[in-house]
Specification:
With about 725 residues, the chain is α+β, with helices and mostly antiparallel strands. About 50% of the residues lie in helices and about 15% in strands. The strands form four sheets. The protein has a five-stranded antiparallel beta sheet.
């Protein structure tokens, strides 16, 4: 039944209820009326009652029709108008409300349509201004692109988390300075949305970012920092970093501009030119000395004494003048060479590795490296220090027949020690002190700088010493240590909890070991090679269709974290992302467009992780995603797996076991949290901190670590 008829029926029933009492009263009155009066009333009713009934029925019909019309024009009209407004507002801005019905409804419809027309005019003006602004922005973007394309330096802009937002072609060309890309699934290390940590050492990035934060906190409005670092390929790269902030100086840093320059060839070219020029001046000085000697011997018999005296005086005078000019040029050149580069922050490990490559190209000597602390920093003119180390090594090899050298890096609270060590061959401090006064040189080349000048410039000292227990001698350079700026660790929460966001999946046996895994069970943990990895995903349900969108990994070999040997790759999941997961890892669908699929990336990661033990925090979650793809891709992750969550529960049963809590507990700097590579690096450092603690509890081998993990509460959970 239509709504209007239901409304009319309701009105009729209401009218009947209202007239019913009157009819009932009339009947009762009729029953008490005398017979004579009742007869007269019957006569009257017989004449007028049909007409009254017809009149009443007609009135009811007219009333119902009138109410139906009012319902249709007012109630239904307003409902239709409301529906039209929803269409106009949400779906079709060009829609207009129909102007029909009573004049009040028509007036309302016209008012609504006038407002819609006015809105369209305003939007048209706004669209025009937006279009003008877009054209202006596009023009500025094109100018910026043209400017960046012409820059010889590589420019990279990243956000505060280290994800690349902008780069130029020079940055892509700089890839050769860093060697082959570790992310085999991608064409190179650079791309929008990728992490700067795949290019630069995360500790170096943390040092630079923290230092800039500290400078801003000290009131410096536009701080800048410049460092030099060595790449895995042996190149030296200068990195200049500036923060990106809002218009007000007190606003937080939202990103960084990095300008990178490969200075290896530049330094070598300048060194070659300097050596050539210096040799030229030295050669001229020797030639002039020979001329002077020849002039003094020109006592020929057929030349009278007066003429010989005159020639002798001219030659001597000219030779003396040339000699003085050469001396002055040599002194000026030496002064310019001393001030060639300002002292720049440099990590000792980078200098030692660069020095090893430098010496191996110039000396026939076996070199070994002994780096006792990777995080020793000092201010240095790196090339003059390389020359100083090369000079000392050359003297030991050429003068004392040393054929095996060890470069050792160590330090204490105040100093960094660079040691050149060898077996046997005792020296005296007088000999070493005498070396300080000699010009630097190696293989027949000479520099105007002396070893003492290099030491004084760095505020360094040098001496000779011996390790009697090992029958080793060494020459030591001691340089002032530079303290990196570190942010204070966050306060740990009072209530322990598992890592937020991820469920713990233990619905498969993490310790179901293959023959390959069993063969490693009795190997000491400190001797194994590890691949520490992490994944970011579309959601938290691997069996429900969620997919991996990023894999990050790094290596541990011989107890040392090889941060340069990293794997990081975004992955196109070919499905939507859970908004809740985006809020955690900040990877957007736009960042995944054009990225390789899991079919391309997972085999590359499988090759990267071959012949290593897999390590992850809450490993069951990550391994579940990997194992669900094994049959489809024809690969098998059958190596052993260790879980830092389980090991932490074994080692620290009364502490919180989330990654952040463990990082705070072990003093590990968290960089790039909730990025796959950032979390993998943090997990790796935590795992290295755990190995000696496990040894203290008698857990030395892989088998013992597995058994210790199975004893924990978490390992008995099933989800």
């Amino acid at each position: 039944m239509p709504a209007r008829w239901r409304f009319a029926l309701a009105v009729a029933v209401l009218a009947a209820l209202m007239t019913g009492p009157f009819v009932l009263t009339a009947v009762l009155v009729w029953a008490d009326t005398p017979a004579e009066t009742r007869a007269a009333l019957q006569l009257l009713a017989g004449r007028w009652l049909p007409l009254g009934v017809l009149t009443t029925l007609a009135g009811f019909a007219v009333g119902i029709a009138l109410l139906a019309r009012l319902f249709r024009h007012y109630v239904q009209g307003l409902l239709r108008m409301a529906e039209g407004l929803d269409v106009l507002r949400r779906a079709n801005p060009g829609f207009r409300v129909t102007e029909e019905g009573p004049h009040e409804v028509v007036a309302l419809a016209r008012a609504i349509n006038r407002l819609a027309d006015e809105r369209d005019r305003l939007l048209a003006g706004l669209d025009e201004r937006v279009l003008e602004a877009r054209r202006a922005v596009e023009e500025e973007r094109n100018r910026l692109a043209a400017l960046m394309a012409q820059l010889a330096e590589a420019v990279i802009v990243c956000n505060a988390e280290g994800r690349i937002l902008l780069y130029n072609e020079a940055a892509r060309r700089l890839e050769r300075a860093f060697g082959a890309a570790a992310t085999a699934a991608a064409s190179g290390w650079i791309g929008l949305g990728r992490s700067i940590h795949a290019l630069l050492d995360p500790d170096l990035v943390a040092y630079v970012f923290d230092t800039l934060e500290a400078l801003r906190a000290q009131g410096e409005a536009h701080p800048q920092l410049q460092v030099v670092t060595a790449t895995p390929a042996g190149s030296l790269v200068r990195v200049r970093v500036s923060p990106v902030t809002g218009e007000r100086s007190q606003e937080a840093i939202t990103g960084y501009v990095l300008m990178l320059e490969d200075v290896t060839e530049q330094i070598e070219r300048e060194a070659s030119r300097n050596e050539l020029l210096f040799e030229l001046t030295e050669g001229n000085r020797a030639a002039i000395a020979n001329i002077r000697l020849a002039a003094e011997m020109l006592h020929l018999p057929d030349v009278d004494e007066a003429m010989r005296a005159r020639f002798h005086a001219v030659i001597a005078r000219e030779v003396e003048a040339v000699s003085e000019r050469l001396e002055a040029a040599s002194r000026a050149f030496a002064d310019a060479l001393r001030a060639r580069w300002p002292l720049e922050p440099m990590r000792g490990a980078d200098l030692v590795r660069a020095a090893a490559a430098y010496l191996q190209r110039r000396l026939e000597v076996a070199l070994k490296l002994e780096i006792l602390d990777e995080e020793l920093w000092f201010d240095a003119d790196h090339f003059s220090l390389l020359q100083a180390l090369a000079f000392l090594a050359g003297r030991l090899v050429e003068d004392y027949g040393v054929r095996t050298l060890r470069l050792r890096l160590s330090g204490d609270e105040r100093l960094v020690y660079l040691d050149l060590m060898w077996s046997g061959g005792s020296l005296s401090n007088e000999i070493v002190t005498g070396w300080e006064l000699e010009p630097l040189g190696l293989g027949g080349t000479r520099s105007p700088l002396t070893l003492r000048e290099v030491l004084e410039r760095h505020g360094a000292a040098m001496w000779f010493d011996r390790e009697k227990a090992r029958h080793r001698a060494f020459v030591r350079l001691a340089l002032p240590r530079k303290r990196s700026v570190r942010l204070p660790p966050a306060t740990a929460p009072a209530v322990p909890s598992l890592e937020e966001g991820r469920p713990e999946f233990y619905d498969f046996d993490l310790f179901a070991w293959s023959d390959k895994a069993t063969a490693l069970e009795d190997r000491p943990l400190a001797e194994l090679s590890y691949t520490v990895f992490d994944t970011e995903t579309t959601g938290l349900d691997p069996t429900g269709g969620d997919e991996i969108i990023q894999i990050g990994a790094t290596r541990i070999v011989n107890g040392r974290l090889l941060k340069h040997e990293s794997f990081e790759q975004l992955i196109d999941p070919r499905r939507p992302l859970d908004p809740a997961s985006i809020a955690v890892h900040h990877i957007t669908p736009e960042m995944l467009e054009g990225q390789p699929t899991i079919e391309e990336v997972l085999p590359a990661f499988h090759r990267f992780a071959q012949e290593t033990v897999l390590v992850a925090h809450n490993a069951a979650f990550d391994m579940r995603f990997l194992q669900l793809k094994e049959d489809k891709l024809g690969i098998r992750f059958d190596q052993p797996v260790l879980d830092t969550l389980l090991l932490a529960a074994f080692l620290l049963p009364n502490q919180e076991h989330s990654l952040e809590a463990l990082a705070r507990y072990f003093g590990v700097r968290v960089v790039g949290r909730h990025t796959a590579l950032g979390d993998a690096l943090v997990t790796a450092e935590i795992f290295l901190k755990m190995i000696p603690l496990l040894a203290d509890k008698g857990v030395v081998t892989l088998r013992q670590a597995r058994e210790a993990s199975q004893q924990t509460y978490y390992a008995r959970l099933r989800y």
